[in-house]
Recover the amino acids of this structure.
C-alpha cells in the first residue's frame, strides 16, 4: 500500500489489481498524479480479496487476466459479499473483445464492472474513466 504522509481527509482510495508490476505502478502513477488518490496495489486476486474484505474503496481498477482465481471471479466475489459491493470497478484489459476466463467484457459488465479501458493504457482515457465513476 502506498500511503503518503499527511494524507488529506476525503482523499479517494483506489485499489489496483494487476499481476504485472510495471502495469500496477503505471496505473498507480496515473491516479496518484491526476486524481491525488491513495492507492493500494494487489498483484494477485487473492491479495485483492483480502483488501476488499478489510477496506472500502472509492474505485477498483481490475485486470481480468490474472493467475489464481482470476479477475472475473474476484469481480463476482466482490459484488456478492464485501464492503465494496457497489464500488465502481474499471476493467483494465488487453482483451477488449475476446472472452477471458469464459466471460466476455460484456459479461463482466453484467457482473458489475462499470467501465472498460483497453491496454495499452492511455493516461487521459484511464483518468477520464475513473473520474466518471468517482462522480457517478
Amino acid at each position: 500500500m502506498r500511503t503518503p504522509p499527511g494524507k488529506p481527509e476525503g482523499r479517494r482510495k483506489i485499489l489496483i489489481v494487476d499481476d504485472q508490476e510495471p502495469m500496477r505502478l503505471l496505473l498507480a502513477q496515473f491516479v496518484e498524479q491526476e486524481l491525488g488518490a491513495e492507492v493500494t496495489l494487489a498483484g494477485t486476486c487473492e491479495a485483492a480479496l483480502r483488501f476488499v474484505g478489510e477496506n472500502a474503496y472509492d474505485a477498483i481498477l481490475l485486470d481480468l487476466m490474472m493467475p489464481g482465481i482470476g479477475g472475473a471471479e474476484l469481480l463476482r466475489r466482490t459484488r456478492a459479499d464485501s464492503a465494496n459491493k457497489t464500488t465502481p470497478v474499471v476493467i483494465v484489459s488487453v482483451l477488449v473483445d475476446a472472452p477471458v476466463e469464459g466471460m466476455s467484457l460484456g459479461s463482466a459488465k453484467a457482473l458489475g464492472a462499470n467501465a472498460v479501458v483497453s491496454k495499452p493504457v492511455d493516461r487521459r482515457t484511464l483518468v477520464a474513466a475513473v473520474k466518471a465513476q468517482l462522480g457517478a
Observations:
- The first strand starts at residue 13 and ends at 17.
- The helical segments are 21-35, 45-54, 70-80, 105-111, 123-135.
- The radius of gyration is 14 Å.
- Strands lie at 13-17, 38-42, 59-62, 89-93, 115-118.
